[in-house]
Structures are given as structure tokens and as C-alpha cells.
User: Which sequence fits this backbone?
């Protein structure tokens, strides 16, 4: 399946969850230890804007990745940024275009399809983060989970930990569901609860 279709589904998954965020939840802690819910939502908007710029060949300046503004309506800001990145990814030539992603790795360009896979798996993971924070279901479909597993399994341990896009792998017992396996590969404990 085209990675862009999977990415659209990850954006939609996150969007359906972000719709449920209430103003009094924005200061809640999230599974991302450096961010409150407000900070996490701002990160999602910033990532969409940064990847859209990278798809157009303008992803180099770090400020491009830091402009996310939630305004007075986080869902509206998220939805607008999701449209922007989906539009930027729409051209078939984007799959082979070189993306500059300073938030991933300085000084290296990535083929478009690889860059979009990073965006995809980030939104699958952060959809779970938001869902756990506000107590709503996270229900990616089986194709999204399977594709997320393929991407997450390729992330080397050297690219995990503080200051990177992924936490260290979380050990899980044999026989866990594919969804819980994906979360573990993305450095998330399915048992996370606010305050723990």
C-alpha cells in the first residue's frame, strides 16, 4: 500500500482522538515525559508543518519545525495542519524527492517514501499518547498496525532514547497483540496511566 494512504489514515486516527480534547485537559501529563497535552498537540501541528515544508524542499531551517500554534482551538489547528501535510505529500514525485529533516538527523536527506514513513509512525504513536492522556480508545486498523510494526522494527537502538523520536523498546511478554507489540517497539508501555 502507498505509504501516503497509510499516513492519511494515521492523521485521521489522531484527528478523531484530538476532537475529544477539552480545554481543561491541556495541562495533563502525557506518556511523552517532556510534554503536557498542550505541548504534544503543538508538536503534532509543528510536525505537520515541518513535513509539509520538507516535501516542498524547505525543511532545513529548524524554525520551520517549531511554529505550531494551537490558537484557541487545538482541533482546528490540528485539522488545518493535517490538510497542509496531506496536500504537500499528494504529488507522486514526492516519494523520490529528498527530504531534509533536521529533527530526525542533521546533515542527511531522506527519500520521500522513507520520510513519510517516519511521519506515519510518529502519528500512530502520538495518537495513542493523546488517547491515553484523555481516556479515549485508540483503534488503528490492522493494516496501519502491520505497517507501523514494519517501520518501528527498523529503528535502531542507537536512535532511541532522550532527544530522539522514539523511546527505548519496552519488553513485552510473548503472545501480546500486534497493537501492544507496536506500542512496545515505539517505547510505550500499554500499562501507562497518568501519574505513573
Assistant:
Amino acid at each position: 500500500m502507498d505509504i501516503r494512504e497509510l499516513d492519511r489514515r494515521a492523521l485521521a486516527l489522531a484527528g478523531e482522538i484530538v476532537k475529544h480534547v477539552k480545554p481543561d485537559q491541556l495541562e495533563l501529563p502525557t506518556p511523552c515525559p517532556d510534554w503536557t497535552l498542550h505541548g504534544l498537540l503543538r508538536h503534532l501541528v509543528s510536525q505537520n508543518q515541518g513535513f509539509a515544508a520538507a516535501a516542498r524542499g524547505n525543511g532545513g531551517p529548524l524554525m520551520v519545525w517549531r511554529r505550531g500554534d494551537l490558537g484557541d482551538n487545538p482541533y482546528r489547528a490540528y485539522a488545518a495542519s493535517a490538510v497542509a501535510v496531506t496536500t504537500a505529500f499528494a504529488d507522486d514525485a514526492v516519494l523520490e524527492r529528498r527530504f531534509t529533516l533536521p529533527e530526525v538527523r542533521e546533515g542527511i536527506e531522506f527519500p520521500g517514501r522513507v520520510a513519510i514513513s517516519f511521519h506515519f509512525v510518529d502519528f500512530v504513536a502520538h495518537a495513542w499518547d493523546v488517547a491515553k492522556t484523555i481516556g479515549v480508545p485508540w483503534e488503528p486498523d490492522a493494516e496501519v498496525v502491520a505497517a507501523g510494526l514494519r517501520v518501528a522494527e527498523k529503528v535502531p537502538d542507537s536512535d532511541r532514547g532522550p532527544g530522539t523520536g522514539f523511546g527505548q523498546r519496552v519488553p513485552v511478554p510473548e503472545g501480546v497483540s500486534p497493537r501492544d507489540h507496536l506500542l512496545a517497539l515505539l517505547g510505550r508501555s500499554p500499562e501507562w496511566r497518568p501519574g505513573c
